[in-house]
Specification:
alpha/beta, Rossmann fold, GMP Synthetase, Chain A, domain 3, 2 domains
């Protein structure tokens, strides 16, 4: 055991105890954070506009703070961009995290001096918790790779502005800097394919032990490594590779191919980070769900997903949630976000401690015929289908096919396979049966003669890569939507 892994063990044990203590006091911590946030922001413009001085209880909180998306909150962000101080939180933001919105264009998410620790410490705690749980700390002695955006910052009203992953890169602790790859110069390359080529060159002969990133880009990295080293598995290239850290999308559709590329199964750590905050992480290897980050400057609210577009949706705090309900996740934070709908839906799988799964995106669904199929359901159906008809997929998305030459409309599954299975019709049948099992409205539409069973459209292996490249979203934290209620993405993919 080398010095870094040796020294990390007692710190990891301390962190795990803190995580367990926070989990045991989650409800109390959440209400305390609510009161603290309101008190600290009472003199800001947002606090004055919404009469924070009169808020004493959660009922008061709900009456004074509306639920908003970025467009509805944007006027406050614009004030900050014009140079104003004390707008939504004291002072000015430390950073703007710049992110692409599907309806709002570029979004500027504030990160404050108080909120930066939520991003940095939670990532660190997820790794230390894994060390304490598994006893595996030796990955700290080798090389670590974070497939991230460029750390180069622009400035907006004097505020450093860039991708969240690039911002976080500036906070890698000194004792890990020597372990981190790729180099700073390579990380600054904007073009993903050029950057990936440099990453492969810099890492292929190194002692890689931990790899972190979005699963599809992780797989692309593995593919390029294997192209440069024909006949070798990732395990042969990196004999000490121990753990993959991922977030952003469901890992299951990618798991089989990633592990096949490696040559064996290794540990994984799932995380739930976003520009708005680091919300949850996997705290147990053998348990389903991610531990909600309840003591890190964020007060969470939960709205039943089918009410999110109502004028007066029902709002719950942590003490009021139930298992298995699909909730829209709402945050209030020490970054200065209030009643903010981040666009993700979650479900609680445990209340002791509070663990969640990410079930989808509010705006990513298919309901062309009233079926309201969501991301969790298509991923469940695909997993069931692949269990019956084993094959490796590269990427997929689903769209409604409404205008048909003959017969009934259907859901079209656009899938890029590593190798197309011979029994493709059987795979489609198995997926369809699983989707009917999961969504009764979809089942009723089929049995009622409104829809026919889904159809799979096979795409070229690189179709999704070429699509993302054409959209200017190749690499980084970008991902393809699983579902669309129109055919814009489908038609773009089919035109390649």
């Amino acid at each position: 055991m080398k010095i870094k892994s040796f020294l990390a063990k007692p710190y990891a044990a301390y962190v795990k105890k803190k995580i367990q203590k926070d989990a045991a006091h989650a409800v109390q911590d959440q209400l305390a954070i609510m009161r603290s946030l309101v008190n600290k922001a009472a003199t800001t413009k947002f606090g004055r506009d919404h009469q924070f001085s009169t808020i004493k209880t959660y009922e008061d909180f709900k009456q004074h703070i509306p639920i908003v998306d970025y467009e509805q909150f944007k006027s406050y962000i614009e004030l900050i961009k014009e140079g104003a101080e004390h707008v939504c939180w004291k002072g000015k933001p430390l950073y703007f995290a710049k992110t692409s919105g599907t309806t709002s264009g570029v979004k500027y998410i504030p990160i404050s001096k108080d909120s930066i620790s939520n991003h940095i410490d939670t990532a660190k705690f997820a790794l230390l918790n894994y060390m304490a749980e598994t006893g595996n700390s030796s990955f700290a002695d080798g090389k670590l790779i974070f497939l991230s955006g460029s750390p180069v910052m622009d400035r907006v009203a004097g505020i450093p502005t860039g991708r969240l992953s690039g911002i976080v890169n500036h906070f890698i602790p000194a004792y890990l800097r020597k372990n981190q790859l790729p180099s700073f110069e390579t990380n600054c390359i904007e073009d993903w394919e050029q950057k990936l080529g440099h990453i492969v060159a810099e890492t292929q002969h190194q002692d890689m032990r931990l790899i972190s990133g979005i699963p599809p880009w992780m797989q692309m990295y593995f593919d390029w490594l294997q192209e440069k080293n024909p006949g070798k598995t990732i395990r042969q290239l990196f004999p000490n590779l121990q753990v993959l850290v991922y977030g952003g999308v469901n890992f299951e559709p990618y798991r089989a191919k990633l592990m096949q590329s490696i040559g064996e199964t290794i540990d994984t750590i799932e995380t739930f980070p976003a520009s708005e905050g680091f919300f949850a992480f996997q705290d147990q290897q053998g348990e389903k769900g991610l531990l909600l980050n309840t003591n890190s400057g964020i007060f969470f609210e939960f709205i039943p997903a089918d009410e999110i577009f109502n004028d007066q949706p029902t709002r719950y705090n942590l003490s009021q949630v139930e298992l298995g309900i699909n909730y829209a996740l709402i945050i209030n934070s020490n970054a200065g976000l209030w009643g903010y709908n981040i666009g993700d839906t979650i479900k609680f799988v445990s209340k002791d401690p509070y663990r969640i799964i990410v079930s989808g995106r509010i705006k990513h669904f298919i309901s062309a015929f009233g079926e309201h199929v969501i991301g969790e359901e298509v991923e469940y159906a695909l997993a069931k289908g692949l269990a019956k008809v084993p094959c490796n997929i590269i990427e997929f998305t689903v769209a409604p096919m409404i205008q048909v030459a003959q017969g009934l409309p259907y859901h079209e599954w656009l899938i890029a396979f590593e190798q197309v299975p011979e029994n493709l019709e059987q795979l489609a049948k198995e997926i369809d049966m699983a989707l009917q099992e999961k969504n009764v409205y979809y089942k009723d539409l089929l049995s009622g003669g409104i829809l026919q069973t889904l159809q799979i459209r096979v795409l070229k292996k690189d179709a999704f890569i070429q699509y993302m490249k054409a959209e200017g979203k190749l690499g980084g934290q970008n991902k393809v939507p699983r579902l669309s209620n129109d055919r814009k993405i489908a038609e773009a993919l089919l035109s390649l």
